[in-house]
Here is the input.
Amino acid sequence: MKKATMIKHYRKHSASDSYIIGFVYDKKLYATKMEEIPPRFLVETQASRGQGSQLRLRIKKQYKDQLMKKNPICFGSADMLEQGKYNKGENFEKIITEYYNQEWEKDSTPFWVDGDITVNGEKIQIKLDSASLVNEKQIRKNFYRG
Here is the structure.
């Protein structure tokens, strides 16, 4: 499945109103909020375990340079992504959730059901650089009829 097709289905079926994306720049963790994740931030890669291709967030340095000009929030050392028993993406989600004074719980709610957090009625999906957004098997099972 092509990148453009996966983006189309992801956007069409996403329950989120906006996104908070995180990235590491000069060994510091940053986050910025956006209405959509630009296609230039997304790559098509091969998923594991027979899931087909997948859409993954991969922010190249030139785009990180651009994001830095938009005054992203700095949360401190990138080492905070390594702390605790969770992976980097889960730790990032926890950091953002707690930033909004909410209690974080590890969950596996699909992106088409709900966002990761809701702030003032706005459903927000939280993604750290290198996160997977959707794979071909999920699209074919839940949305694709062609």
The two ends are 11 Å apart (CA to CA). The longest strand covers residues 18-25.
